[in-house]
Amino acid sequence: MTAGAAAVHEPALDPDSAAWVRALDATGPERDAAVECLHALLLRAAVTEVSRRRSSTATSGADVDDIAVQAADDALMAILRKLHTYRGDSRFTTWAYKFALLEASAALRRRPWHGRELPLEAEGWARLADNARMSPPGHAEASELIDAIRAAIAEVLTPHQRGVLVALTLNDVPIDVLAERRGTSRNALYKTLHDGRRKLRARLAEKGFHDA
Predict the structure, then answer these.
(1) What is the dihedral of CA 111, 112, 116, 118, to 10 degrees?
(2) Alpha-carbon distance 102 to 46, whole Å?
């Protein structure tokens, strides 16, 4: 380091956080015990979150434990994959709790779609066009735009882009569910959606819909 250059220091881990990291990074019985303790901690956090949101998601009591276990399992795997990224900006348990809450939220979003077929046809077109508060001219303009979008979707998007865009934007399929069913990742679907929308905007601009 040159003279006068400021050294960059990572936050020092508190003793409890350092013990967690050391045990999870170990091997054999020490790691196994740490993983078991961490899973119990994550399960408690997931149960609390699922129970808190139970009424707003129409989750039955029988489903709470199942969803919480799934969330804790997924959170544990994510933490073990990302353990090397923990830098001590917060206590380890606080950092780990966030994974449990995120996975619980994702599991709750997926639950209503369990065992259901994903609607990949454009069932939402009628909903977009049906707006009783529009004036007749406004309704006519909206219908013209929707017709142009439907044509553009058919003409410029690949089947994969079309399926992703329709599922996510028209049929309200949660992205977690679509990623799981298609064997891909959320980021890959976001990229597909971004590329598809870019193609649509370009085609609509060609047709004179510059503000679409």
Answers:
(1) -100
(2) 9
Query: DSSP secondary-structure letter at 113?
Result: G
Give the Cα-Cα-Cα angle 98, 27, 88 (nearest 5 degrees).
35
Q: Is residue 2 part of a domain?
A: no
The alpha helices in the chain, defined as continuous H runs, are: 15-24, 29-52, 54-57, 61-82, 92-110, 125-129, 136-156, 159-165, 175-182, 186-206
pLDDT in tens, 64-82: 788 888 889 989 999 999 9
Q: What's the CA gap between 59 and 65, in Å, rounded?
A: 11
Q: What is the DSSP letter of 111?
A: G
Please tell me whether residues 59 and 133 are part of one structural domain.
no
Higher per-residue confidence, 130 vs 179 = 179
Task: pLDDT band for 42, please (50, 70, 90 cuts).
Answer: very high
Report the pLDDT value the prediction gives residue 17, as an integer from 0 to 100.
94
Find out whether 72 and 103 touch, Cβ atoms under 8 Å.
yes
Identify whether residues 27 and 87 lie together within a single domain: yes
Domain that holds residue 177: 125-206
Range among 3-12, 55-64, 173-182 rated most confident: 173-182
Q: Which residues contact 133 (CB under 8 A, 6 or more apart)?
A: none
